[in-house]
Amino acid sequence: MTASLDQVARLNRASMDPSNPLAYLPWPSTGSLESDPGWDVDLPTPLGAVIPERRCRGLLAKSLACHLMATGIAFERELQAGLCDHLARLDPGSAEYEYIHHEMIEESRHSQMFGRFLSLLPDVPRDDGLVSATLAAIDLSEAARNHPELLFLAALAGEEPIDRLQRLLIRSNELPELLHQISRTHVREEARHMAYARWALRTKLPTVGPKRRRRLELLAPSLLLDTGWLMIVPPPAVLEANKVVLTEHNVDLLVGLTHEITSGLWGFCDQLGIVTRTAERLREQWRPKSAFHTR
Length: 295
Ligand SMILES: [Fe+2]
Ligand SMILES: [Fe+2]
Prior knowledge:
Elements: H1 3-15, H2 21-24, H3 46-50, H4 58-87, H5 95-119, H6 129-138, H7 140-146, H8 148-171, H9 177-204, H10 210-232, H11 236-241, H12 248-261, H13 263-272, H14 277-285
């Protein structure tokens, strides 16, 4: 380590708070996560359900876990930028102002935790380019300044599918202990974030005008499904590195699972009154943007 990086490592240690997952999780030494026998157990993921001949074990299981962490980091980066811009709209003495700071601090810690996990598996293929490009296209900072309702729907679009996947991981006790505990920590803290985003949508949406409401109606189907897909299907580069080839039938099954994993949030959109006939049609016609080599 160079002298200057050594200084940053010292600053990190001096900043460590005991409630930070970096301080309390059972971080293994370099190399031992790679050889953890827990990777020889099938990772419960939608991809494994769709292509049962490719068991989600070993390198593929590590790749899928790393994809989840890399996607989480990319998503949290965009979300934090949006939340930070949203603060400018709020009274610094308000409960919401205080809560958004809690959420940003927790998201920062999640990214630290996911990043530490990735650092322990440096040779596992990953690619967050698609996630970053998809989320950057939504421009959550612009949404936060002008359409906060879109920011909160985007928060739920990312948080709900990742929550579903991590609950699956928690149920399997045989996986590497670290993966298990990261999932538990994230699920526990995200429950608050989702509760806040749902509250914010319920209270803010009735105050927005018809133009902004119409924009949300038109964006909601692709926002939910694109984000859900990114969470459950690794990008083509990661699939190729693991020699996973999706058939057209596999893609159809994964589209069905993406609908299923986002159905709870779609039901919430219906309660909010933003599921119109046009929105239903857009949802039915949705297809993933990723270019797969299918056979
Ligand atoms: Fe998070
Ligand atoms: Fe969150």
